[in-house]
Amino acid sequence: MSQLVKAFWEAEAGRQRDRFTTLRDENQAILERDLLMGWLSVLKPERLLEVGCGNGAGLSLFSKFSKRADGIDYSEPFIKAAREKYPNLEFYVADVQQLPFADGDFDAVVSERCLINLPSWDEQQKAILEIHRVLNPEGYLLLVEATEEGYRRLNSVRAACGLKPVEVVWHNRPLPYFELERCLTHLFHTLRGGAAFSTYYYLSRVVHPLIVAPEEPKYDARINNVARLIEEKLPIWKLGEGPSPLIAYRARK
Q: How far apart are CA 232 and CA 21, in angstroms?
């Protein structure tokens, strides 16, 4: 399965060379990046690592808040594109389960939907342990991923409204929420976060489909732009609450 997922991203690298994000939902991507940049603007890490950096577009933004920024991805075509477009940053072809860095090298590590591409919790946990290893004694893990329980919460709301469940794409394996919480609580002194962008998900994945039914909702519909603005300015649910498959954590080692 790991090789199939890698092959998928090798193919995507060619098709998405110049895209800001590999997500089809660009409003979601903006929310994720803004949250991470907000955290980084406070932390101002000396040295930053992004795991699963893709074509480097995210790291080019995150690097504004650090003196040095490195990125790793196991897709050679993505790393080739990143090196060409952002020559001022350091990029490496590497596996998040076996990082080519010394213990304590980084002040902060960002994982934005990287771990969900690993096909089992054992591999995801191994990646978290490897990230923990390369963080300095007071370093931060900034995590945006998806969980099984989050999808169940969202789909229970959709079911109550007569909507079909949101299916997880074949190349993603959402993390098990309670196992993740136990792992992070064991490894890190402070852990803040939980379900993320629930207001956006409720409006874009429940209200929007109900309004346009029987037509299919579209990611670039105006209502999703409005949903993002509501999430930013007047959210119904705070970070850590609500029916979203996404989680976002700021964890200090």
A: 19
Phi, psi of 61 (to 5 degrees): -80, -45
Q: Which residues lie across from 151 on neighbouring strands?
A: none
Angle, CA of 148, 226 and 159, to the nearest 5°:
35
User: What's the pLDDT tens digit per position in 126-137?
Assistant: 999 999 999 999
Q: According to CATH, what is the number of the domain 2-252?
A: 3.40.50.150
How far apart (Å, rounded) are the C-alpha atoms in residues 10 and 65?
Answer: 29
Q: Is 242 helix (H, G, I), strand (E, B) or coil?
A: coil
Structure tokens at 153: 């919460």
Domain boundaries, the chain: 2-252
Distance, C-alpha 132 to centroid of its chain: 17
Q: Has this prediction a pTM greater than 0.85?
A: yes
And the tokens for 193? Answer: 């976060």
